[in-house]
Amino acid sequence: MAQQEDEEREFDLRWAETAEHKEPSARARMLAARWKENPPAPQPFRADAGRSAPRRSSWVSTTVVLGTVVVIIVLLGWANFRAPY
What we know:
Largest sheet: none
Helix content: 55-70%
Oligomer: single chain
Number of strands: 0
Structural class: mainly alpha
Distance between the termini: 74 Å
Low-confidence stretches: none
Mean pLDDT: 79
Shape: elongated
Order of helices and strands: HHH
């Protein structure tokens, strides 16, 4: 009996997946109705487009990262040199 119900349920899922028209989700319907009356304001592509802090140039960031890597390599070499064998 349970196997027959599983087969019926599987048939229903296959039938639903092959439907030509799929109804939008409740959230999509809610937003569509809300935006008909009050469309959303345009948003910038990037979230940080409107911030007022000055931006550092890319070479400064690159120098900081490479400097940090060099310092770590030197410290690891120094620690290895001082380690007793």
